[in-house]
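explain this:
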Amino acid sequence: MKITVHLPALLFLCLSFSAFAQNRQAGLYLEKGNEFYKVRNIDSALYYYDLAVKADNGCAEAYYRRALAKEKTQDIDGAEADYKTAIRISPMPVYYNNLGMIETKRGQQEEAITYFDQALAIDSTYVQALFNKGISYHKLGEVEEACKYVGKARQLGLLFADEYLNQFCK
């Protein structure tokens, strides 16, 4: 019996195996980075997140994790770039929410609200974005609007919203 393997089929198998190996390696680097992040060894976490991104530049989770670590080192511009890359790969509410938090820290409340809105467009029940949007409105001096969003977050179960509501929304 003669077995014939066509070159395109063989090439496909090689590329598929290569992609699988690449993704597996990225996953291992991510796991190691997460271990270091949990014990607050941020430099080592960043090292492994960098390796994960290099192993698979299409892995949104690697960019997201690296952005979190960059925020811990005050590399806000780097974190912003990584969140935006993660969004291009796979838009998730948490990525938009975290970009909103970066804008909040910069004092850019209107831009922050835009990002919180994008998170809420994906998941209208994302309580962190609701709460954070409310806080941005508060910082703009729009307490009534702030109470509306913080109240929605509380209705959806965000218990620490009570503190804000009790203080500002009587």
User: Anything to note?
Assistant: The mean pLDDT is 90. Residues 32-90 form a domain with the Serine Threonine Protein Phosphatase 5, Tetratricopeptide repeat fold (CATH 1.25.40.10).
